[in-house]
Each structure stands twice: as C-alpha cells, then as structure tokens.
Amino acid sequence: MIPGERDSGEKPVPIVPRVLIVEDEPAVADCARVALEQHGIQTTTCERVAEAIALLRAEDFDCILLDLKLGREHGEEIIRAVRGGTAGKRRDTPVVIMTGLLETRVLQRVRVDIRSVVLKPFKRATLLEVLLRHLPVAAEEKAA
Fold it and tell me: Do strands 95-99 and 63-67 pair parallel, antiparallel, or not at all (unpaired)?
C-alpha cells in the first residue's frame, strides 16, 4: 500500500521520511542521526562523496543533510550529481547544508540547489526545525 493511502476506512499508513546524512565527523553525524530518529525520521549516514552517490542511486531519500567539507572531498560534488541526474532518479531532492564555515563562494554557486543552511555547532531543535520544512511529514502536520 502507498504511504498515506486509506485501506478500507483504516488510518493512513504513516509516511516515514528518510534523510541521508553526509558528514565526516562521527560525533556530528551521530548527533544529527539521534535528533532525527527521536522524531521518527529514518536516517542513513555516510562520510564520503562516492558512498553518498552510491546510496542515492540505490535508495530514495526525502532530503540530504550535507556537510560541505568532507575531508579532502567537497559536498558540492554530491549536489551536482543529484541535480545532474547521475545520483539517482530524484533531481529535486532537497539539500540542507550543514557546515562550520560559511563558504560564501560555494554557497553562491550552489544556492539555487540548496534549501537551507545549518551552522555547526547546531542545536538539535534548530536542525529539526530546518529539516522539517523539507520533509513530507512537515506538509502533513501543517495540513492537519
């Protein structure tokens, strides 16, 4: 059954939003994961560009929570792959940037491709507030 669809008058199947967290700092990734999972959001985490692109090709995510600095790699590559259609079928997947440094040049280049920016260190409540704007559950809650 399709999430949200009614079956013989029963309650709709709840939509469980899925977020891909791409972060190379384990403590930050874990903090984001715990905050989201405590609110019923399913998460998958990874640390590298190639791993993120492989996950996006194999699975559907409702949003990407992305650190721009991934060791020697750069998260901008993931944004380009998503928007270019080489990282799965969904070119419109919302991308929320999570960064410790405001990289103005990069943000100006990709600003049409990102939905929001969360500065590290972040408060869990702030992270949730920003992400919920871009997840299916937020639309349902606003409509209710």
Answer: parallel
To the question of pTM greater than 0.90 for the whole model, the response is: no
Three-state secondary-structure class, residue 114: coil
Alpha carbon distance 109, 133 (integer Å): 23
Q: Give 48: exposed, middle or buried? Use CB within 10 Å, 0-12, 13-18, 19+.
A: middle
Q: 13-50: per-residue pLDDT in tens?
A: 567 899 999 999 999 999 999 999 999 999 999 999 99
* Whole-number Cα distances in Å, 28 to 44, 97, 121, 128, 129: 14, 13, 8, 14, 17
SS3 content of the chain, % helix, strand, coil (to 5): 40, 20, 40
- Taking each helix axis from N to C end, the angle separating 136-143 and 124-132, rounded to the nearest 10 degrees, works out to 80
79: its two tokens: 């944004």
Q: Number of helices and strands (H, E) in the chain?
A: 6, 7
DSSP at 103: -
Please give the distance of CA 55 from its chain centroid, rounded to a whole number.
12
Domains, in order of start, for the chain: 18-132 (3.40.50.2300)
